[in-house]
Specification:
Length: 149
């Protein structure tokens, strides 16, 4: 991982997310709530250059009382997932981190978007759960085929 991006993620965790109860493992920030867990996964873009790194943020929900039978978005632990900009319209789809980037400013902007997404997840938790259960039911029906007549 690019040194500047690594600094942004460290600053993001220490100054904004850790005080809110988030843990950091690699480029993933997670927090357990009473009935679910939320993860914010930083994924480096494949299209990077000598100027720095581009990255994306995926928001993930894991329900404590449900097994993950149908992972979402290729993430094995995910019941529900969405890109950050789907939850926070002011967030960027692709974030850029150059070597001359103001680390604190980028961490603050990204952290604000992550905390907004966390609030949105909490408000829409019932819908996230229904979406997962509907996908699971549809997949199970598809596996079973049409009902006998």
């Amino acid at each position: 991982m690019d040194k500047t991006l690594s600094s942004v993620l460290h600053t993001l965790h220490e100054s904004l997310l850790k005080p809110e109860g988030f843990h950091k493992q690699g480029a993933t920030f997670s927090r357990r709530q009473e009935s679910y867990g939320e993860l914010f996964c930083i994924r480096a873009s494949q299209h990077n250059g000598p100027w720095g790194r581009s990255f994306y943020v995926n928001c993930v929900v894991v329900f404590a009382d449900l097994a993950v039978e149908l992972p979402c978005s290729g993430l094995p632990e995910a019941h529900w997932a969405a890109p950050l900009d789907a939850l926070v319209p002011s967030a960027l789809r692709q974030w850029d981190c150059s070597h001359d980037e103001d680390v604190a400013a980028l961490a603050e902007r990204l952290g604000g978007c992550i905390l907004s997404a966390s609030g949105r997840i909490a408000a829409d938790l019932g819908r996230c759960r229904r979406d997962y259960l509907a996908r699971l039911t549809a997949c199970q029906r598809q596996r079973l085929g049409p009902a006998p007549r």
